[in-house]
């Protein structure tokens, strides 16, 4: 078999993801942990690491575009900058995902990290989330359950003079001017603000793991954009266009983990069809492999199972909400809150806020219920 641009993209995606997984495991980079530390003990270190990852990814995208090494326009997977602003999807999906990741003890990325470290509970969560993400993407489930009442809330930004939902284009639609220039100004301003926010606290700057985790996760997202939108990505797209049977999802993209769960399940249902193996599946398996390798080297690999039926039900409910909510919101804590934010998409910021709100509300409810039971 000839080694094609497609094979190169899949291999490099796997290697980047393996580094991502190993470092995220080592540094305990966890978005649920970030919210939990902030809410329960007032420590904002991991929350700032998450914000710093956004800053690094955004800086990477701005640098790639300024240098001409990659062009990340309005056509990506998922469609972050789409002018069809589905605000209800972002809010509802984000809230569902935030609740789900709290019940399931971790977001999509953390589920992969824990599964790679021997946590069988996370393997179950991964499988259940994959099933419901598959139903949302590859069956009529979304159309039957959501489309009729979600579609009317979608706002066509182009009717309001906005070429996309990138912040610069939104601003240009309001006050006039060039959206691309505004994106550069707003982008670097946000990079500076998010970096300053991260380093303003000793909780973050006093921890090498927080710095390393945020930097590597953000850099991995930027590398994903370069791989699929740079010269290799252009060759990849040209090769796919010439193929009799183009492989799955040959599009400009970076790291996200809910849709790859659905795509992975789709491939497992037809494992002889290698054209179904795509960037997202390789990213998912790379994170699993990186986490596994770190767990073995650090001797932290541990088998863990549910302690009770209630524990199983909690995680199962969380997995269902993550699978549905992640697809509804068009991304997760990595896919929207880092990859999406790096494109300056308004919906990504809205999804990020909704995920945090859903997680915070769930933690507060569980704390209230615990106090009530003790009382």
Biggest sheet, in brief?
Answer: 2 strands, antiparallel
Strand content: under 5%
CA(first)-CA(last) distance = 67 Å
Query: How many H/I helices?
Result: 17
Q: Which percent range fits the helix content?
A: over 70%
Written as H for each helix and E for each strand, in order along the chain, the element string is HHHEHHHHEHHHHHHHHHH
Global morphology: globular
Give the total of beta strands: 2
Q: Briefly note the structural class of the backbone.
A: mainly alpha
Poorly predicted runs are: none
Rg over alpha carbons: 20 Å
Summed over residues and divided by their number, the pLDDT gives a mean of: 96
Number of domains: 1
What would you note in describing this structure?
There is one protein chain. By secondary structure, the chain is mostly helical. It has one domain. 71% of the residues lie in helices and 1% in strands. The protein is built from 17 helices and two strands. A two-stranded antiparallel sheet has the order 1-2. The longest helix has 29 residues, at 346-374. The N and C termini lie far apart (67 Å).
């Amino acid at each position: 078999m000839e080694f094609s641009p497609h094979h190169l993209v899949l291999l490099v995606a796997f290697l980047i993801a393996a580094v991502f997984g190993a470092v995220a495991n080592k540094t305990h980079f966890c978005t649920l942990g970030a919210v939990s530390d902030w809410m329960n003990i007032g420590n904002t270190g991991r929350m700032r690491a998450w914000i710093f990852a956004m800053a690094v990814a955004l800086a990477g995208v701005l640098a790639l575009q300024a240098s001409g090494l990659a062009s990340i326009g309005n056509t990506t997977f998922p469609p972050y900058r789409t002018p069809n602003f589905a605000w209800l999807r972002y809010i509802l999906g984000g809230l569902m995902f935030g609740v789900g990741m709290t019940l399931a003890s971790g977001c999509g990325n953390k589920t992969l990290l824990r599964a790679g470290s021997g946590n069988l509970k996370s393997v179950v969560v991964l499988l259940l989330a994959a099933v419901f993400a598959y139903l949302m993407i590859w069956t009529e489930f979304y159309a039957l359950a959501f489309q009729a009442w979600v579609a009317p809330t979608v706002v066509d930004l182009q009717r309001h003079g906005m070429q996309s939902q990138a912040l610069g284009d939104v601003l240009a639609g309001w006050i006039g001017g060039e959206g691309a220039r505004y994106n550069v100004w707003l982008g670097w301003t946000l990079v500076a603000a998010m970096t300053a926010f991260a380093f303003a606290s000793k909780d973050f700057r006093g921890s090498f793991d927080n710095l390393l985790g945020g930097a590597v996760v953000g850099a991995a997202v930027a590398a994903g954009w370069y791989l699929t939108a740079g010269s290799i990505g252009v060759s990849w797209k040209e090769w796919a266009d010439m193929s009799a049977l183009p492989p799955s999802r040959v599009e400009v993209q970076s790291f996200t983990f809910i849709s790859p769960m659905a795509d992975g399940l789709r491939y497992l249902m037809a494992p002889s069809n290698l054209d179904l193996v795509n960037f997202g599946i390789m990213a998912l398996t790379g994170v699993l492999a990186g986490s596994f390798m770190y767990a073995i080297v650090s001797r932290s690999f541990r088998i863990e199972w549910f302690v009770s039926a209630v524990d199983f039900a909690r995680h199962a409910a969380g997995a269902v909400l993550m699978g549905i909510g992640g697809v509804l919101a068009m991304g997760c804590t990595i896919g929207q809150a880092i990859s999406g934010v790096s494109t300056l998409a308004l919906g990504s910021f809205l999804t990020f806020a909704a995920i945090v709100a859903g997680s915070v509300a769930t933690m507060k409810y569980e704390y209230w219920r615990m106090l009530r039971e003790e009382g």
